[in-house]
Design a protein that fits this description.
Length: about 240
C-alpha cells in the first residue's frame, strides 16, 4: 500500500468516525459540574501524561473510591494528602484490563507532589476552578490560566482538561496519535512526539484547525475522531 493510499484511507476512516461522534452528541457542560468533579478531572489530566487512557481511568477511579482526592483534606493537611496519594500510586492498582489484574503507576512521587501543589495554588488562595474558568474571556486564555495554576501540565493536558469539561471546542489535543496522523497526511513535515511549548503548540494547532475547516468538521470532533482511528491502527500494528 502506497503512502498516498494509506493517507486517503485514514482520512476516510476519520470522516466516518466524525459522523458517528456527531450522531451521539455527548455534551458535557462545565457549569453544571460540581467543584469536586472539576478537581477530579484536573487531577486526571495531571496523572494522564504518558499513561494509557484505560489505565488512567482505573487509577482515577481507585483514588476517588479511596477518598484520596478530598479538597478539604488537601487544605487542612497538604503533607499527609500528598503522602497518601503517593502511597496509593506506589501500590498495584486493580485493573481488569491487564493479565495480572493490576497496574503500577510510573511516577507516584512526582505526580503526588504535582497534585498537592496544584490544589494549594487553587484552594489556599480562596479560589476555585469554577472561578478561574469563569474569569477567562476565551479558550486560549483559559488554557494559559490552567497551565499557570496546575503544576506539571502543559498545553496538551490543559487543552484536554478544558475539552473534557465541555468548556473548549476549538483547542486541539496534540498527543502522539494526532501528531502522527498529521505527519502521515502531510500537515507537518516530521513526526513529533510532544509539543511542550505553547507558541509551537498554537502553530500546529492552527494547521489542524485549518485542516478541520477544509474537512468541514469542528476541531473538537476532528481530533477526537483522529485519536480513535489512530489508536485502532496502533493496536492492529498498522501504523
Amino acid at each position: 500500500m502506497t503512502n498516498k493510499i494509506f493517507a486517503e484511507r485514514l482520512e476516510y476512516a476519520v470522516g466516518e468516525v466524525c459522523k458517528e461522534i456527531k450522531r451521539r452528541k455527548n455534551i458535557v457542560n462545565w457549569y453544571d459540574m460540581a467543584e469536586v468533579q472539576l478537581w477530579n478531572e484536573l487531577v486526571s489530566c495531571i496523572l494522564g501524561s504518558q499513561v494509557r487512557h484505560e489505565h488512567l481511568q482505573c487509577i482515577i477511579k481507585y483514588l476517588i473510591s479511596e477518598d484520596l482526592l478530598s479538597i478539604k483534606y488537601l487544605i487542612s493537611n497538604g503533607e499527609n494528602f500528598e503522602r497518601n496519594i503517593q502511597s496509593a500510586l506506589e501500590k498495584p492498582i486493580p485493573s481488569p484490563l491487564t493479565k495480572t489484574g493490576s497496574i503500577r503507576y510510573r511516577y507516584p512521587r512526582t505526580k503526588a507532589n504535582y497534585i498537592r501543589r496544584t490544589g494549594e495554588s487553587i484552594y489556599l488562595t480562596s479560589s476555585s476552578i469554577i472561578e478561574i474558568i469563569t474569569s477567562c474571556v476565551d479558550e486560549r486564555i483559559a488554557r494559559t490560566k490552567i497551565m499557570s495554576v496546575a503544576v506539571g501540565i502543559g498545553p496538551k493536558q490543559a487543552s484536554l482538561f478544558l475539552r473534557n469539561i465541555g468548556y473548549a471546542k476549538n483547542l486541539a489535543i496534540l498527543d502522539t496519535h494526532i501528531l502522527k496522523y498529521m505527519t502521515v497526511i502531510g500537515l507537518v513535515p516530521k513526526i513529533l512526539k510532544t509539543v511542550p511549548y505553547l507558541p509551537k503548540y498554537e502553530d500546529i494547532e492552527g494547521v489542524l484547525n485549518n485542516y478541520a475547516t477544509k474537512f468541514k468538521e469542528s476541531l473538537a470532533c476532528l481530533d477526537t475522531a483522529i485519536w480513535i482511528v489512530m489508536r485502532s491502527c496502533w493496536k492492529e500494528t498498522i501504523v
